Amino acid sequence: MTEENSNNYKSGFVALIGRPNVGKSTLMNQIIGQKIAITSNKPQTTRNKIQTVYTSDRGQIVFLDTPGIHKAKNKLGNYMVGVAEKTLKEVDAIVWLVEPTDYIGAGEQHIAKQLKNINVPVLLVINKIDSLSDKTELLRFIDNYRKIYDFDEIIPASALKGDNTDTVVDMIFKYLPYGPMYYDEDTVTDQPVKQIVSELIREKALKCLNDEIPHGIAVAVDKMHYRKDGRIVDIDATIVCERDSHKGIIIGKHGAMLKKIASAARYEIEELVERKVNLQVWVKVKKEWRDSDFYLKNFGYTQKDE
């Protein structure tokens, strides 16, 4: 970047916030143009603060996709909420995603209360507008949200369909400060490949398993080895659950469920590493790991600066 161009270059850090399952990860993946954060219709999908980078000629946006802000029930939940709320104090702008609805519940009220202590631009994205049969309802929803917070911008969008996501990017650049390029232009995330691999396996487990199980699972990549010829990657991974009964469900009859999870994950991992993948997945029981400081740290759910 030349000195002359740097005077017109904008850059900054932007937090994506909202209740679980409103589409934060889907929006981020859509803007970045590739899959970084896993998606699911189940709560607690995003557990860590995931940093991704969008770079164009006009500037660079560093997105922080935070865990959904919710009422914590265990140490893992406390960690997730702590990550999300701490992020609000470290950014240049905030994008708050909500669903198109008349009902503004305690979760949204809690987020609005948190934002009143933050002095940065806040953009509201009313996501999932593709689910509306009557688009005129949007005006009513916008009016309702205006009553709980004085937003800098309100943008209807569909992260899943890609509708109006360009406008979201335009509005973010509108409020970002002029500044340097923080990352090389080919950087898309700060997440190690092993971390993305473990999250892809967890995503497939979330989508395949019953509702009561996914909350209690974590995935650890025990080994990731590139063979000498460079054409195949050997990966050993472990799905950790909290109960013996859950282990049986995850493995399934004659190992069918585990094979289904591994097969679905292998396809996306091969796209990620651009090589053939030999994936072996095991299941272990670690009772109440979500309340264990040792296991939370072991699975990467710890504040880096603590």
Explain what you see.
It is a single chain. The chain has 306 residues and is α/β, with parallel strands linked by helices. It folds into two domains: 3-175, 3-Layer(aba) Sandwich (Rossmann fold), CATH 3.40.50; 193-298, 2-Layer Sandwich (GMP Synthetase, Chain A, domain 3), CATH 3.30.300. It has ten helices and nine strands. The protein has a six-stranded mixed β-sheet, covered by helices on one side. The model is unreliable at 38-48 (pLDDT under 50).
Please name the defining characteristics of this protein.
six-stranded mixed sheet, 10 helices, 2 domains, three-stranded mixed sheet, single chain, 34% helix, 9 strands, Rossmann fold, alpha/beta, 22% strand, GMP Synthetase, Chain A, domain 3
Short description:
This protein is α/β, with parallel strands linked by helices.
Number of helices: 10
How many β-strand stretches? 9
Count of domain modules: 2
Q: Helix and strand string, N-terminal first?
A: HEHEEHEHEHEHHEEHHEH
Widest beta sheet: strand line-up:
2-3-1-4-5-6
Approximately how much helix is present in the residues? Answer: 25-40%
Strand pairing plus helix content: what structural class? alpha/beta
